[in-house]
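[recover] target loaded
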């Protein structure tokens, strides 16, 4: 059945139904209280990701177009009869990236309850990071140490990392945890400069997982005391690549080999799917940590919302996501 409203409008409306992540009580900040809720700016982020609008000015220019769809979207971005000013858009969208990891984790747990990916298989998740190339040129080490920026297109907030597949890359790392099952559900995500170690960021991601027994599958970078400690306290079983020369002959090597194959198929295929949908194989479309984190984590959130929408409309959850979002 063809819906009566544009697909993008339907996706934006789903933001109102997002579960709210738990928040620690905090002291009221000085200044005027917020008039607009965070969900209003999450709606704007969904529009930005789907329509590939990477700056606030681009978003506002598109929303000003005199079409029926834009009128519907402007109504969804109005609260108590008021529409945010440009300065409010800029300020609140700049603060949004810090809240996205918790929102992604909360929606991920909600999707687990709805989609039941572990109904007929073991509970396992895969953790990994994937590199994203920075917009503009590369800031070479000799220039970085000297404090010299050869040209203004260089994103000085990005950093270098060496990938086993891509070699040296100047850019960012998208850290991800997803399910190992028939349905790939992102459960946790964050973005850092490319030089941040995977095992250092892993505890923050693991904290967003549900509190019941899980196998956490990772490569050698996650064979670290920080990961083992947080898994122990949350009741998870980490299964990571072991140190030493191949072939390994220790206890459980055949079982670990099966787990490593599952991890590789799940997280690497998900990374390729994600990059294909959001055109992340080349340079990212944004400059600076705030804008890049908003874009990358916003794309993960949109992926989750698309899964949710397709589940409710009894659509395939693995095939057709890219044309589905392009059609929006």
């Amino acid at each position: 059945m063809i819906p009566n409203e544009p697909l993008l409008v339907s996706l934006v409306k789903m933001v109102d139904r997002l579960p709210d992540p738990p928040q620690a009580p905090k002291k009221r900040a000085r200044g005027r209280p917020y008039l607009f809720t965070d969900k209003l700016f999450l709606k704007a982020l969904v529009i930005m990701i789907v329509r590939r609008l990477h700056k606030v000015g681009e978003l506002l220019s598109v929303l000003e177009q005199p079409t029926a769809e834009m009128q519907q979207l402007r109504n969804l971005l109005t609260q108590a009869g008021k529409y945010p000013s440009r300065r409010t858009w800029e300020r609140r969208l700049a603060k949004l990236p810090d809240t996205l990891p918790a929102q992604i984790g909360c929606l991920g747990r909600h999707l687990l309850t709805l989609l039941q990916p572990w109904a007929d298989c073991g509970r396992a998740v895969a953790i990994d990071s994937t590199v994203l190339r920075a917009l503009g040129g590369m800031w070479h080490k000799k220039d970085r140490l000297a404090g010299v920026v050869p040209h203004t297109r260089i994103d000085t907030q990005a950093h270098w990392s060496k990938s086993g597949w891509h070699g040296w890359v100047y850019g960012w790392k998208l850290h991800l945890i997803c399910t190992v099952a028939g349905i790939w559900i992102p459960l946790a995500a964050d973005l850092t400069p490319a030089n941040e170690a995977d095992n250092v960021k892993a505890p923050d991601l693991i904290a967003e997982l549900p509190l019941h027994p899980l196998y956490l599958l990772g490569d050698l970078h996650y064979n670290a005391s920080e990961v083992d400690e947080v898994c122990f306290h949350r009741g998870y079983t980490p299964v990571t690549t072991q140190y030493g020369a191949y072939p390994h002959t220790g206890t459980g090597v055949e079982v670990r080999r099966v787990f490593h194959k599952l991890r590789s198929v799940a997280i690497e295929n998900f990374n390729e799917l994600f990059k294909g949908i959001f055109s992340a194989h080349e340079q990212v479309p944004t400059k600076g940590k705030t804008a890049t984190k908003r874009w990358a984590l916003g794309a993960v959130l949109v992926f989750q919302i698309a899964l949710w929408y397709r589940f409710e409309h009894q659509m395939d959850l693995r095939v057709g996501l890219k044309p589905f979002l392009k059609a929006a």
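[recover] notes: The chain is about 45% helix and 15% strand.
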